[in-house]
Design brief:
The structure is a single chain. By secondary structure, this protein is mainly alpha-helical. Among the domains are: about 80 residues; about 100 residues, Recoverin, domain 1, CATH 1.10.238.220; about 130 residues, Recoverin, domain 1. It has 23 helices and 7 strands. It has a 3-stranded antiparallel beta sheet. The chain has a two-stranded antiparallel ribbon with strand order 4-5. Strand 1 and strand 2 form a beta hairpin. Helix 21 crosses helix 22. It is globular, with a radius of gyration of 31 Å. The protein starts with a helix and ends with a helix. InterPro entries: EF-hand-dom_pair, EF-hand_13, EF_Hand_1_Ca_BS, PPP2R3C. One of its GO terms (biological process) is cortical cytoskeleton organization. GO terms for molecular function: metal ion binding.
Length: about 450
């Protein structure tokens, strides 16, 4: 490596001496001169702080450099080089994947060399035939037909020494699909660090829309709202700490991507569409509810307008805290903040939702809830009980029941960890912030016995 470096420096010096000649330089010579100048600029930061002379780290002869800083924004040449290198790398990885014709070849080989007899009309293959298929298929298939793959599938086979041909084929298809998706996501990872920012994810979803038959009827004017609705679910659950980026690995391992790519199917049952957050009917429903709440049609929601959300029984105290803790504009909530609010309330049992709601409940910003905190929110429930002429309920009884459900490590305070681990976080939060949920919980073991309770349950 050192000899090559000396040869390169000698070449640059010889070219520099020829700069004075009158005849035009060749393209290669110009590139070499530019490289020398660029290298000299990079070497300016490698001077000894005491002598000011250039230093040379001889340790690189023995220990290769393994950390490379990202190019600075002003360094356009280095950024372009990094971008081109990443593009070539992703193209190379893409060529390593199996295409449709290669999958057909794999299936024909598996069918031809399966181990008889078929069991329950399902074909199986033993390890000897498996190795034969791997050799016949060629080098490109080797990474999918390894001994480790056979062992993993054998563990769930149920038949000693044999694995299901269909299970093996599905495994290969799933692996290729994951790698294709990873490459597709990585194309939007402009820094190459394995993360996507919100704008990166928005670009990815926007370019996916034309490939989804289920979204063909979606008006183009609604595309931006659809993208926002889709991206918020990814970031709400995969970035609960609000860092502004999510790992590509997390996107691939969560189930959201499967739900999103399900829209490629030509036909999806109506009930399945309603349960899929990413479907057109679901996105239109969420946005339609937002528009219905927006009584003054200014595109934002005030506290007065948001109180109509859901059953309309969220307590004013809770909504005050929502607007105090969440991002608002002149005291009103935009669509993106509203989506976080909806996702939290519709998925109250999830740790990410409890994290969101705990931040709102933590009035004193101490990282835990005390009896004072619980009483602060329960006053809203007591006010609703009074409005509906229901029998007053003693706070001490509710407090004791909550602490019994949570069983916190410290008997005087409830942390977010306690709330998540107890398995009753959804119940605890609901009976503090929503009268309808509290009444349902309070009467879970008895029937409706009074006009007041009928009125409460009808909300």
């Amino acid at each position: 490596m050192g000899d090559f470096r000396e040869m390169l420096l000698s070449k640059l010096d010889s070219i520099a001496q020829n700069e004075v000649r009158q005849e035009p330089l060749s393209d290669d010579e110009i590139e070499d001169i530019l490289f020398r100048k660029y290298r000299a600029e990079l070497s300016k930061d490698q001077k000894d702080p005491t002598s000011g002379q250039q230093t040379r780290n001889d340790s690189y002869r023995y220990i290769p450099k393994f950390h490379f800083e990202l190019p600075k924004s002003a360094d356009s040449l280095a950024q372009k080089l990094r971008e081109e290198a990443r593009t070539l790398f992703l193209q190379k990885r893409s060529k390593e994947l199996l295409d449709n014709n290669e999958f057909k070849l794999l299936w024909s080989l598996l069918e031809k060399h399966h181990t008889p007899p078929a069991l329950d009309e399902e074909q199986f293959i033993n390890y000897e035939s498996y190795c034969k298929v791997a050799n016949l298929a060629g080098d490109k298939f080797q990474r999918f037909l390894t001994a480790t793959t056979f062992a993993r599938l054998l563990a769930s086979s149920g038949y000693p020494g044999k694995i299901s041909v269909m299970a093996l084929f599905n495994y290969a298809m799933r692996k290729v699909w994951l790698q294709q998706t990873r490459i597709g996501l990585s194309l939007y990872d402009y820094t190459g660090q394995g993360y996507l920012s919100e704008s990166d994810m928005e670009s990815y979803i926007l370019e996916l829309i034309p490939t989804f038959p289920q979204l063909e009827g979606l008006e183009r004017s609604f595309h931006s709202f659809y993208v926002c609705t889709t991206v918020r679910k990814f970031f709400f659950f995969l970035d609960p700490l609000r860092t502004g980026r999510i790992r590509i690995r997390d996107i691939l391992t969560c189930s959201f991507l499967d739900d999103l790519l399900e829209l490629r199917d030509e036909e999806i049952p109506k009930d399945a569409q309603e349960l899929n957050w990413f479907s057109a009917p679901s996105a239109l429903s969420v946005y339609g509810h937002y528009l219905n709440l927006d009584k003054d049609h200014n595109g934002m929601l005030s506290k007065k307008e948001l109180i109509g959300y859901g059953s309309g029984t969220l307590t004013p105290i809770f909504l005050e805290r929502v607007f105090a803790e969440c991002l608002t504009y002149d005291g009103e909530m935009d669509y993106k903040t509203y989506l976080d609010f909806v996702l939290a309330l519709e998925n109250r049992a999830e740790p990410q939702s409890l994290h969101y709601l705990f931040r709102i409940l933590d009035v004193e910003h101490k990282g835990y809830l005390t009896a004072f905190t619980l009483n602060y929110f329960f006053k809203g429930i007591q006010d609703e009980l009074s409005v509906h002429r229901a029998e007053p309920i003693n706070f001490e009884d509710v407090k004791d029941e909550i602490f019994d459900m949570v069983k916190p490590a410290d008997p005087t305070r409830i942390t977010l960890k306690d709330l998540i681990n107890c398995g009753h976080g959804e119940t605890v939060v609901s009976i503090l912030i929503e009268f309808h949920k509290f009444w349902a919980y309070e009467n879970r073991e008895v029937g409706v016995t009074s006009p007041a309770s009928e009125e409460a349950n009808s909300l």
